[in-house]
Design brief:
Helices cover 43% and strands 16% of the residues. With 261 residues, the protein is α/β, with parallel strands linked by helices.
């Protein structure tokens, strides 16, 4: 696969220094996720998973709303992208994010609504502008945010998550940070600096070890403690024999930077 930004109708995309940057680009529609954006995101997540050159995904959005969730209105007239039909849904986006097993750093500079929480909860890192809010308003429309729960309760406590979805009231970025929905709430200058530093740090780390570690994290999450510890014991034994571990240890002893290429 080769990324060509002109292929995308709803996203801005670039790839440099092992970082795949994806920005939601339907600001006039509050970046609501329609069928075209769904298709384009699925395509890029497949590309990121398969590409050895991509070590980190940076996710952001254009406009003053990060994402309004799924597009409930008619999508007639939306320009199509030049990509193959992935035939997926918002649920498939969440699954691919969760199973990507590469760092995903989300920079949130606008309000987050409803199904957009799936993007936030299934990122490995999320940082928010201190003026934004997060809301799951579905209950006020007679709807329950069923899919959101799959990711939400893996990053926040049961009571914090239930309050968010049962009352449908927005919380500010500071509260989102307190409950663990995001890593931090920062002003605009600090937000850009922090996310840039985190992305840069992650891109310099051993990619194969990172992927195997995240795969193991996903697998052990549903195991009992005794099952998990035995499984993870085998994982560390395997990792210690890997080329990246040998390079990392050699670089440490030789007082040089490791080369992960």
């Amino acid at each position: 696969m080769q990324i060509d930004n002109s292929d995308f109708a709803t996203l801005l995309v670039s790839e440099t220094n092992h970082i795949l940057s994806i920005s939601l680009n339907r600001p006039e529609k509050k970046n609501a996720i329609n069928t075209v954006m769904t298709n384009e995101l699925l395509y890029l997540l497949d590309y990121a998973k398969q590409s050895s050159s991509v070590r980190v995904i940076e996710l952001s959005a254009c406009g003053d709303v990060f994402c309004a969730g799924g597009d409930l209105r008619s999508m007639s007239g939306e320009s199509e992208s030049n990509l193959p039909d992935m035939k997926g849904s918002l649920a498939d986006i969440a699954i691919k994010l969760n199973e990507l097993c590469k760092p995903v750093v989300t920079r949130i500079e606008g309000n987050v609504y409803a199904g957009a929480l799936l993007l936030v909860c299934n990122s490995t890192h999320a940082y928010a502008l201190d003026s934004v809010s997060f809301c799951a308003p579905e209950i006020k429309r007679g709807i329950w945010p069923f899919m959101v729960m799959a990711g939400l309760f893996r990053v926040v406590s049961k009571r914090d998550g239930l309050d968010l979805i049962m009352r449908g009231e927005p919380i500010d970025a500071q509260e989102a940070a307190r409950i663990g929905l995001v890593n931090g709430a920062l002003n605009s200058v600090a937000l850009k600096e922090k996310t840039s530093n985190v992305i840069s740090d992650l891109a310099k780390l051993p990619p194969k070890t990172m992927t195997r570690g995240l795969q193991a994290f996903n697998q052990q999450e549903t195991m009992s403690f005794s099952e998990a510890i035995k499984f993870l014991e085998k994982e560390i034994q395997y990792t210690l024999t890997s080329d990246e571990a040998k390079e990392g240890i050699s670089a440490f002893l030789e007082k040089r930077d490791p080369n992960w290429e």
